[in-house]
């Protein structure tokens, strides 16, 4: 009897659900710098129609009718401060002002860890604009500002992104 319970526990832990399991993957791509692969990003939505909407109007990700998520699997060790600095640089590149950015960075400084190869950070954004970060499948914190989620996604999905090829892959605009 006990060995059957042990097998049940073992197999149930192997099939645990992920944060994005019930979502539709709209696209995926990798970020590289010179010859280093930094991470793989995937963009998800609970809205199965968002993919078609994005193909008609790439700004459709800004007003999802259901949850969206950005999942990033890291291939390199990156210190939290380097993640924060890169995020700030990208927001400045997109034209966000320092007054908006600073509270977001303060929140991220509390939430984000240093990442190691194999770590997965996922941001889930509700249609109401609530943002929740996960490390693996563990919730690690949220950002209350409802403008944050779109600003964070814009780093990858805005038409002004510094990585247009990755943007096209995440939005499913390339085959």
Automatic annotation (TrEMBL):
Alphabetic keyword roster: Signal
Domain of life: Bacteria
Signal peptide: 1-17
Residues covered by the Chalcone isomerase domain: 54-172
Protein name per UniProt: Chalcone isomerase domain-containing protein
Native species: Shewanella denitrificans (strain OS217 / ATCC BAA-1090 / DSM 15013)
């Amino acid at each position: 009897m006990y060995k059957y319970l042990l097998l049940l526990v073992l197999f149930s832990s192997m099939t645990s659900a992920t944060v994005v399991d019930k979502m539709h993957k709209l696209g995926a791509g990798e970020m590289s710098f010179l010859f280093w692969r930094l991470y793989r990003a995937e963009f998800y939505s609970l809205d199965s129609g968002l993919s078609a909407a994005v193909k008609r109007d790439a700004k459709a990700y800004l007003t999802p009718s259901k949850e969206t998520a950005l999942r990033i699997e890291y291939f390199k060790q990156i210190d939290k401060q380097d993640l924060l600095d890169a995020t700030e640089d990208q927001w400045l590149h997109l034209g966000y002002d320092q007054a908006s950015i600073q509270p977001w960075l303060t929140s991220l400084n509390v939430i984000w860890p240093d990442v190691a190869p194999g770590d997965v950070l996922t941001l889930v954004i509700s249609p109401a604009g609530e943002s929740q970060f996960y490390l693996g499948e563990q919730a690690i914190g949220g950002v209350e500002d409802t403008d944050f989620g779109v600003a964070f996604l814009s780093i990858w999905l805005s038409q002004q992104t510094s990585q247009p090829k990755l943007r096209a892959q995440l939005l499913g605009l390339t085959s």
